[in-house]
Amino acid sequence: MSLIDVILTAIVEGITEFLPISSTGHMILLNHLLGDGDDYFSRTFIVFIQLGAILAIVLLYARRFLFNIGVYFRLFVAFLPSAIVGFLLFDFIKTHLFNPMVVAWALIIGGVILIILDKRLPQRDPEADELSDMTYRRAFFIGLFQCLSVIPGVSRAAATMIGGMTKGLSKKGAAEFSFLLAIPTMAAATGYDLLKFEGHLSFLQWEYLGIGFVVAFLTALLVVKWFVHLLDKHGFSIFGYYRIVVGVIFILFAKNW
After folding, report:
1. Residue 41: how many CA atoms within 13 Å on its side-chain side?
2. 8 A C-beta contact, residue 169 and residue 123
3. Is the distance from CB of 146 to CB of 185 less than 8 angstroms?
4. How far, in Å, CA of 2 to CA of 14, rounded?
5. pLDDT digit string (tens) for 72-107?
């Protein structure tokens, strides 16, 4: 992995992690385009840039929810279903579902659903403080939707945002709860990955991990602010169309993989 690969991969992670377009799908595609392998450093690097992206959410929302204990309990209720499913199916998912065709069709189907929901669901007041009023039942329902994201290409962000909107949240409210739910979900997933890794890193590789962490953090910080603003004006349709295009690209590339 060169320095350019490190920076590019971290930027892609920072951009895609919290958008409803599947960061995992983009990582698989980018890995094939760059020719990077599946060695110890590459897997550790993905974990580090995901942690950088998580830190961006913590920083953006800490002041608003740091002392709101009720939100933490609701996040735990939403996190629990996917934690159980992910733990039980971890090896199966890594072995059988991480292939381009699964990602491609998950991207396309998810894109179609986003477009339909964006046009069919009624508009909600984006200024309503829906996170403070989040019920446990609604949080659990969103958590069930998050279980779908164990399929590469579905997108954790897309699944939770769709779950939130179908339960009456505004687009902004669904997005913000999705951002917060990413913190325990991604922290658990990356922590579990780290526990399973075995290997050693050189000093240069540690430098690359640090660079990737910072780049992913800064990129995610900018993207999340931009995304919430974009939702108020354009909704989810633009991301649905993008997913379909990327899914088709996956199918075309998959013939040569």
Report:
1. 18
2. no
3. yes
4. 18
5. 899 999 999 999 998 888 778 877 787 788 889 999
Q: Could you report the per-residue pLDDT of 180-194, keeping only the tens digit for each?
A: 999 999 888 877 777
CB atoms within 10 A of CB 96: 10
> Which amino acid, one-letter code, is at 174?
A
For residue 151, give both structure tokens: 């399929």
Where are the alpha helices (H) located in the chain, listed in sequence order?
3-16, 23-34, 40-65, 69-92, 100-120, 136-146, 156-166, 171-196, 203-234, 237-254
Q: What is residue 150's DSSP assignment?
A: G
How far apart CA 113 and CA 111 sit, in angstroms, is 5
Q: Quick one: how far is CA 238 from the chain centroid?
A: 17
Residue 206, pLDDT > 70, answer yes
Question: Is this structure's pTM higher than 0.85?
Answer: yes
Here the tokens at position 188 are 């658990």
Q: How far apart are CA 253 and CA 35, in angstroms?
A: 13
CA 54 to chain centre: 10
| 155 vs 171: CA distance, rounded Å | 16
Phi, psi of 38 (to 5 degrees): -115, 45
**CB contact at 8 A, 103 and 24:** yes
Mean pLDDT score across all residues of the chain = 86
Residue 173 burial (C-beta neighbours within 10 Å; 0-12, 13-18, 19+): buried
| CA separation for the pair 237, 204 (Å, rounded) | 42
The pLDDT score that the predictor gives to residue 187 is 86
Contacts for 187-192 with beta carbons within 8 Å, 24 or more apart?
A: 187/51, 187/54, 188/79, 188/83, 188/86, 189/50, 189/86, 190/47, 190/50, 190/51, 190/54, 192/86, 192/87, 192/90
Of residues 120 and 219, more confidently modeled: 219
Q: Residue 13 pLDDT > 70, yes or no?
A: yes
